[in-house]
Amino acid sequence: MHTPVLIVGAGPTGLTLAVDLARRGVPTLLVERAPALFPGSRGKGLQPRTLEVLDDLGVIDAVRAAGAPYPLMQSWENGERGARWDLVERSGADDPSVPYPDIWMLPQWRTQEILRARLREFGGEAVLGTALTGLTQDAERVTARLTGPDGTVRTVTADYLVAADGGRSTVRRAVGVPMVGETVDPHPALVADLRVTGLDRDDWHIWPAAPGGPLLLCPLPGTADFQLFAQFTDGVPDTSADGVRRTVAERTHLPAEAVTDVRWASDFRPRAALADRFRSGRVFLAGDAAHIHSPAGGQGLNTSVQDAYNLGWKLGQVLAHGAPAELLDSYEAERLPVAADVLDISTSLHRASAGTARESDRAPRRGERTEQLGVGYRGGPLSLETRTGLPGGALRAGDRAPDTPLPGGGRLFDVLRGPHFTLVAGGGEPPAVPAGVRTVRLDDWGPGLFLIRPDGYVGLATTDPADLAGYGAAVGLRG
Fold first, then answer.
1. Gap between the Cα atoms of 200 and 217, Å rounded
2. Model-level pTM greater than 0.90?
């Protein structure tokens, strides 16, 4: 069997990549060693930039319907309510350039369900219970050995393989890419999804001075569940149902029997780690296979989704549109520095919140540092800026293209949505463009031509239409 792209791991990263490639007409084989998709709520915060990605992939309505804004924090001590505050900085202004200004809460398992349903709309599927048990590659292809749930072994070849199989990535180890990092917090933590009585669902409840370490219970939208997070200053978390109940009873005013159901539980030690490189020959690392984050700040899932979003259009251009294979080199060049910066953010937020502040003015807040709208690729290999004398706040090559109302109605993101490039012309009518490139005139952007990549970043910013041909050839635009 041969497939253009073999994706190992059907978490948010692998599902996002499979959806993006499916809409580009690029066949994939998506395999997951577990017998079912990940069942927990772990990565429950979708940042504004990730919401834009999900809009482009056609699932934003489902995401908005199933999720909710972050609740306020409510502290407890000795069975009494204490301070109440906001963990996130909410946008008070109506900014047309940012359609989704605030972080959105959605359990990770629900995000995966939504992406899987979208993949099925394109005729794709995740093959569950199938593990990668062998891997070799040469200059022409990757050869993988896959073992199914019944022990059947088959060999699959692929033009490219993408490792989206998590922090303990089998693929990363198979290709010998080291990952270097540190323990962010020496104390272990317990995370679980449970159902509990005697607690309202209006707030995110926190017992900051609980014996043994802080405990938090967050109501999960669209469900009857709460997500439990508990730090342990001593001992090892007990992930059994009785252990979870005991932890709740010891640290809150709720009795053990208030926990009526423990649906999923896991323990971990917060770590930060980064792979030395994101590519080895025809194998790419994405998501937790390439970078591991503390959960603080809600960065891990979001950075992973955007890895897939960055890689997807490039694989599509190479495999379906004849772009030079060198285009794929830009994946590591663009995403590795972003991942390194995000690791710094999540680590600093985790350490700032160590012990968890008991008053609202001491609680670390999430906002501009974590929403990822400022992530860009200025100076990168696919960012060509030919204009000079620009003012400080000017939109430049490498920047995220801001949403903008269109003169005839609608918004720019309506034009950008889809797997194509878009040329925005300011100060005049758009010139002739290659087939498949959409055009729009936006005088508000000032004079110039802005070629927007399929992932919503300005690739080329110029005043000379002749620059379009050279840039277009490098990214697989013909004509």
1. 10
2. yes
